[in-house]
TrEMBL record:
The keyword Transmembrane applies. This is DUF1232 domain-containing protein. One of its GO terms (cellular component) is endomembrane system. It comes from Micromonospora marina. It is a multi-pass membrane protein. It is found in: Endomembrane system.
Amino acid sequence: MRDWLIGLGMATVGLIVSWGVLVLLARRLPPGILRDLAAFVPDCVTAVRRLRRDPRVPRRARVAIVVAGLWVASPIDLIPEFLPVIGPLDDIVVVALALRYAARQVPRQVLLDAWPGEPRLLLRLLGGTVASPPS
């Protein structure tokens, strides 16, 4: 039992150290697409949290946003997170689909106000067809 606990402790320390290295490397990325991708999932989580509390977001859009937030927070993924580059792909797709769904029901400015990152990324994700809210 002791050997198992030591192995688990070493694995935990290794995971935390690797996260720290990844954070340091992400901060050193030059401006561009790689830096934008590194910030995309945290920006999505922040936007989901803000939109979930916004009274201007209709119930259906809020439900889609909450489901996307739960998907990102869930430890169960279609593609394991530890795989380089493609690990967070399923999270990105689910959040992108939820934001596009919400964009059909929420004014564009509400989404832009909730988005903490570079606005051009959100605008590119939403595309050109964002409807005004239903009357």
